[in-house]
């Protein structure tokens, strides 16, 4: 990972959509690592089209800048405008990802029914999500639903095993 990291140096990063709207602002010592984490966890990650990074000498300076960005720029998916631990001035935005879940479910069920996914074979949720243009967390949610239906079995690390339906 590349960084401009030195003792205490902290980055304020901003994530933008294709129209230039600010989606999220956050702080970290290692922006690239944080973006990988966001890509795996955030349902809105597929909207990110651009990133900017501003470095500060201390974490405290970055926290102040993040607070200003949250109040003044109002990122769409940001909850950093903190009143105190666990309290936010900006309400959480829920994303309806039902179409993504439905696409993943339909794909997996079709592959099983067509015999291209055989009982005992392994399949990774994030790979299916990537192939279908769906966030990894959305694909995992669909896979977990299929596990509750006894079509898949969770194996860990995002991997699932196809179960025999007979």
Explain how this protein is built.
The strands form three sheets. Strands 2-1-3 form a three-stranded antiparallel beta sheet, with helices on one face. A three-stranded antiparallel beta sheet has the order 6-8-7. With 166 residues, it is α+β, with helices and mostly antiparallel strands. The chain has helices at 31-41, 59-73, 98-113, 125-132, 136-148, and strands spanning 10-16, 22-28, 50-56, 82-84, 87-88, 122-124, 152-156, 159-162. The chain is elongated. It is built from five helices and eight strands; from the N terminus they run ββαβαββαβααββ. The protein starts with 9 loop residues before the first strand and ends with a strand. α3 packs across α5 and α4 packs across α5. Helices cover 38% and strands 23% of the residues.
């Amino acid at each position: 990972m590349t960084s401009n990291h030195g003792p205490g140096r902290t980055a304020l990063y901003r994530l933008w959509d294709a129209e230039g709207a600010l989606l999220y602002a956050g702080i970290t010592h290692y922006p690239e690592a944080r973006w990988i984490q966001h890509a795996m966890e955030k349902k809105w990650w597929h909207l990110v089209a651009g990133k900017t990074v501003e470095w500060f000498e201390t974490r405290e300076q970055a926290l102040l800048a993040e607070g200003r960005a949250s109040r003044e720029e109002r990122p769409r998916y940001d909850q950093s405008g903190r009143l105190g631990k666990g309290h936010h001035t900006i309400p959480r935005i829920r994303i309806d990802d039902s179409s993504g879940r439905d696409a993943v479910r339909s794909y997996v069920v079709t592959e099983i029914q067509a015999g291209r996914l055989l009982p005992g074979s392994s399949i990774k949720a994030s790979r299916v999500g990537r192939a279908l243009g769906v966030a990894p967390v959305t694909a995992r949610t669909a896979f977990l639903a299929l596990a509750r239906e006894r079509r898949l079995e969770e194996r860990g690390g995002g991997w699932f095993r196809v179960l025999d339906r007979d």
